[in-house]
Design a protein that fits this description.
With about 325 residues, this protein is mainly α. About 55% of the residues lie in helices and about 0% in strands. It is built from 13 helices and no strands.
């Protein structure tokens, strides 16, 4: 079998995987209720004593904590996106049934969602990470600082599985990015440019997981496409033939029905650009070198002065407790 034939087979497999995720997105994991309306605001009289997931400050704290934990224990950062999907869909199920969630249960929900995400999808990304595993429920009991016992976490685990109807394999934006970039003809793309596109796009998907306006309001495939388009703006595409880019966009459009000029795509792109600032990937920001900004940064802390996101490093302290 020739290399050309192998490339075509791999290309077809990628397209099949994208179609499968699009089907999941539309049928199995259809867009959950957006929890951004004012009736769910934590300061409204009806929900004054209830922690609402629409609060972006709480969401960013959860994301920051989750990224610290997975970094410390050496797991892939995509786990956090899955964790946030579980939380979003669980909160959506409560809203449908007009059920309220006490504050302490919300903290337990966050920890249990991360536990489930790691147990079902966790892959070690760092061989030098601590040997203690996040698939051990006792690790999360320790992280809860006494708020949750093993029995409480197990009860919440069953509650999540039931509410989500055991649908635990969501097509998150980072998965779409990983497949969409493979539609570029790798043999005609400079390796360093392709690497930068992947890294920046994945970083932007991490930001989207921590932003309710993106996670609750738009399809994962559309968010992924917007992340890729923004990454193409940040990367120097001078050495990429224009017909390659046009061919890529036409292929994506044929498969996903997404186009750069669509109003919703433009809206998501603007939200992402506002989150990162204009210069984060340009190497023009004081104390923010290009290499540092390309690291997998933790969304949650934005330096509004410089437009560079603070890198939250993993340390033993990150495993000493939860985000609250």
């Amino acid at each position: 079998m020739t290399s050309t034939s192998c490339d075509q087979i791999e290309h077809d497999l990628v397209i099949d995987h994208i179609y499968a995720m699009l089907h999941q997105e539309e049928k199995t994991y259809s867009q959950h209720i957006c929890s951004l309306d004012q009736d769910c605001h934590p300061h409204s009289s009806r929900n004054r004593h209830i922690v609402q997931h629409s609060n972006d400050l709480s969401r960013s704290k959860i994301c920051e904590w989750a990224f610290k934990v997975v970094d410390h224990f050496g797991y892939e950062r995509e786990i956090v996106g899955i964790c946030m999907d579980y939380i979003d869909r669980y909160m959506s199920s409560l809203k449908k049934s007009s059920t309220q969630l006490p504050a302490n249960d919300y903290q337990i929900l966050s920890a249990t969602s991360l536990y489930l995400a790691v147990k079902l999808h966790g892959k070690k990304d760092n061989k030098y990470a601590p040997s203690k595993s996040l698939t051990n429920i006792n690790t999360f009991v320790m992280l809860s600082r006494g708020v949750a016992t093993k029995e409480i976490i197990e009860q919440m685990e069953m509650s999540i599985l039931s509410a989500l109807e055991w649908r635990m394999n969501p097509p998150i934006p980072s998965y779409f990015v990983s497949h969409l970039v493979e539609l570029f003809p790798s043999r005609m793309m400079p390796r360093d440019i392709l690497y930068d596109l992947i890294e920046i796009s994945r970083y932007l998907t991490e930001l989207s997981a921590c932003t309710s306006a993106l996670s609750n309001g738009h399809r994962p495939s559309l968010v992924a496409f917007a992340c890729l388009l923004n990454a193409m703006d940040y990367v120097d595409m001078t050495y990429v033939p224009r017909d390659i880019v046009i061919s890529f966009l036409e292929t994506v459009s044929r498969i996903t029905q997404l186009q750069p000029e669509m109003a919703e795509v433009q809206k998501v792109r603007k939200i992402l650009k506002d989150l990162v600032g204009p210069n984060i990937f340009k190497g023009e920001v004081d104390n923010c070198q290009k290499e540092r900004c390309y690291e997998p940064l933790s969304p949650g802390h934005t330096d509004n002065t410089h437009g560079c996101l603070e890198h939250v490093t993993a340390s033993p302290d990150c495993a000493s407790g939860m985000y609250y």
